[in-house]
Design goal:
Layout lengths: L1 H31 L13 E4 L7 E4 L7 E5 L4 E11 L2 E8 L2 E6 L9 E3 L20 E4 L5 E4 L13 E5 L4 E10 L5 E7 L2 E6 L1 E2 L3 E2 L1 E3 L20 E4 L7 E4 L8 E5 L4 E11 L2 E8 L2 E6 L1 E2 L2 E2 L1 E3 L2
Antiparallel strand pairs: 1-4, 1-7, 2-3, 4-5, 5-6, 8-11, 8-16, 9-10, 11-12, 12-13, 14-15, 17-20, 17-25, 18-19, 20-21, 21-22, 23-24
């Protein structure tokens, strides 16, 4: 009788444990098999392995990470015969590649696709963010993270032939040269000049998130001179016309001792200023490690100009 009671108690304990564990495992499996990357293929369609990042796609005997039975090279085309099956957060498709039938993953489960429809033209991207920048104006990256500069609008992961050529730090000021263009990633891109580097940078993403903002110069007007165009913390250069150098002086005055010069087209960082004296605006600049004061111009003529 004691053995029957012990067996009943043990059975009850096992049932209680299973009741607690099985739902948890089921929830874990549901989360494990949750696929959020939109599928672009369908049964009967012709697809191919993407040309970026130019890697082959493995063929397996079952969805997920089953036994490898072959591979499809970058650019290789296939016929979709089954699927999709969501395993490990990735959509898996059964395909026929040159007579070899197996399962292969469509992407990394996030933003990068390894497969794409072949002979199919995707719909154009939709850029929903309202533009605030404009050609000929100035912009500033919002405080915090930097904004990337690329050789073309869009990103490689969304099909654009674009490489990173630099970045603009948070608070960095730039001039807007051209744009906007709606990139392959659904973001508006502007062609800008940041400290002499020309490239494309995104205005933001979505419909309400801005990474850049318009920047309005509030230049000082010194007596006897037009409104200053340089800003403290920005960048500038000596104008190419009349193709003359600008002198660097110990203090902001034409009587200041000359300690060097900046040639026409020479770029510099603006450290301080303006200091109004002798009918011009004087700026403290750093040109190749030489720090001194230089005049912005005379009367209505500028000798210096911003580059941002």
């Amino acid at each position: 009788m004691r053995y029957v009671a012990k067996f009943a108690l043990l059975s009850l304990t096992i049932l209680v444990v299973l009741a607690a564990v099985v739902p948890a495992l089921a929830g874990h499996a549901e989360q494990y098999n949750n696929c959020t990357q939109p599928a672009r293929l369908s049964v009967g369609m012709t697809g191919r392995v993407t040309l970026y990042p130019y890697l082959p796609n493995t063929l397996r005997n079952a969805p997920g990470y089953g036994a490898k039975i072959g591979s499809i090279p970058a650019g290789g085309t296939f016929t979709v015969v089954g699927g999709p099956q969501c395993v490990s957060g990735i959509y898996w498709w059964q395909v026929n590649y040159n007579g070899l039938v197996g399962w292969t993953g469509e992407g990394n489960g996030y933003t990068t696709y390894w497969l794409e429809p072949y002979g199919w033209t995707p719909p154009p991207p939709i850029c929903a963010l309202q533009n605030r920048l404009y050609i000929g104006g100035y912009g500033r990256v919002t405080p915090g993270l930097p904004n990337v500069l690329r050789s073309a609008p869009g990103t490689n992961s969304t099909g654009s032939n674009s490489v990173v050529i630099g970045e603009i730090p948070g608070g960095g000021i730039f001039s807007v040269v051209d744009g906007p263009q709606c990139g392959s990633d659904g973001r508006w891109w502007w062609y800008v000049n940041y400290n002499g580097t020309l490239g494309w940078t995104p205005e933001g993403e979505g419909s309400s998130t801005y990474w850049t903002e318009p920047y309005v110069q509030t230049g000082t007007t010194c007596p006897g001179f037009v409104t200053s165009r340089l800003v403290k913390g920005g960048y500038g250069r000596v104008t190419l016309w009349p193709n003359l150098p600008n002198r660097l002086r110990e203090f902001p005055s034409y009587q200041g001792f000359v300690i060097g010069s900046v040639p026409a087209g020479g770029g510099f960082a603006v450290l301080d200023g303006p200091n109004c004296a002798q009918n011009t605006a004087w700026w403290l600049v750093n040109y190749n490690g030489v720090v001194g004061w230089t005049a912005e111009g005379s009367g209505s003529q500028y000798w210096l100009e911003p580059t941002y």
